[in-house]
Amino acid sequence: NASERWQREAATVATAPTVAPPEPTGAALETQPPPPPVYPPRAASRERRARAVAAPPRPVARPAELRYQEGWSALRNGDLGRAAAAFEEVVAADGAGALAAEAVYWRAVALGRAGRSAEAARALEAYLDRDPAAPRADEAGAMLGWLLFERGDTPGALRHFTRAARSGVTAAKESATRGLEAIGRPIDPQREEAVP
C-alpha cells in the first residue's frame, strides 16, 4: 500500500526527538519580574531581603514557543491532529521566524502521519518554497517525493528524490534512493545521480 510506504519512509526521515525541545534563550525570551519576596514575620535579615529583591528576572517563553512545545508533546504522544493544529498556530504567531519554519516542517510530518497526504504535501511544498536551503530541506524533499509518487506525479517525485539523493543527511539520501528505485530510476554509483 502506497500510504503505508510513505508512513515507513517518513518515520525513517522525520524522527521526533525523545526529549523535550530546548529551553528558549536569547532574543526569543521576554522577561518578567520575579514575584515579590515573601518574608517571614521579623525573621528575615536585611541581607537575606536584599538578596531576594536583587534576584534577576526569570525568562518567560513566548506564546509561539509554548505552542511549539505543545506540538512536540502531541506529536510524541501520537495526537497528530492536535500536533498539526499547534504547529499551525506557531506559524501564525511567529510569522517569518525560525521557529515558524520548523513548525511548518513538523506540521507537515504530523499531517502525513495522520494520513492527510494532500495537506502534508502542500505543507512540505510551503516549507521548501519558504527556504529551499532550509535545515530540513533534504528530509522534506524526500518525504514530498514519496507523497508525489503516491499521487502518480512521477516527474515531481523524481525532481525531489534526485535532489534529496545528493543529501548529506543519511536518512534523506537513503529514502530518496529507495524512491528513485521505486520509480525505476536507480542511482548510478559512478555519477551519484539517477539513471536516465
Keywords:
mainly alpha, two-stranded antiparallel sheet, globular, 196 residues, 9 helices, 61% helix
What class would the helix/strand composition place it in? mainly alpha
Q: Helical proportion? A: 55-70%
Between the first and last Cα atoms, what is the distance in angstroms? Answer: 26 Å
H/E element string? HEHEHHHHHHHEE
Give the biggest beta sheet. Answer: 2 strands, antiparallel
Overall 3D geometry? globular
Low-confidence stretches: 22-37
Secondary structure tally, helices: 9
Average pLDDT for all residues:
78
Strand order of the largest sheet: 1-2
Taken as a percent bin, the fraction of beta residues is 5-15%
Mind telling me the C-alpha Rg?
23 Å
Query: How many strands appear in the DSSP assignment?
Result: 4
Summarize the structure.
With 196 residues, the chain is mainly alpha-helical. The protein has helices at residues 2-13, 46-53, 63-76, 80-94, 98-113, 117-130, 137-151, 154-165, 170-183; strands at residues 29-32, 58-61, 187-188, 193-194.
Describe the structure.
This protein has a two-stranded antiparallel ribbon with strand order 1-2. It has a two-stranded antiparallel ribbon with strand order 3-4. With 196 residues, it is mainly alpha-helical. Helices cover 61% and strands 6% of the residues. It is built from nine helices and four strands.
